[in-house]
Amino acid sequence: MATSENSSTFQANNFISIHDLSPEGRTLWVSDSITDCLGYTPEEFLQTTTYELLHPDDVERASVTHRENVLNDMVATQIVLRFRAKDGFIPTMLR
User: Fold this and answer.
1) DSSP string, 2-69
2) Which end of the chain is more exposed for a tag (fewer CB within 10 A), N or C?
């Protein structure tokens, strides 16, 4: 697969979310593309906890990143994580 094709596929299969700085890192907002990516409506996704839908191998990295953001009073960060889709499937990341 060509690099531009990989990039297009990645961009078509991602979403943006905003989380608060509480220890739980509650999701405050998620883009509508969550439905195409994972099958959840934004409302359904907002009713879950941040960590319950993460791939088990990504939980620690997400937790460390969140903790560092809170300690350093960071207002924004970018991280790529794998989430479980509504049908139970966990998509793999493109390399």
Assistant:
1) -HHHHHHHHHHT---EEE-SSTT--EEEE-TTHHHHHS--HHHHHTS-TTTTB-GGGHHHHHHHHHHH
2) C
Quickly count: other Cβ atoms within 10 Å of residue 31's Cβ. 15
Other beta carbons within 10 Å of 66? 21
CATH code 3.30.450.20 for 3-71: yes
pTM of the model: 0.71
Spans of all domains in the chain: 3-71
Beta-bridge partner residues of 29: 18
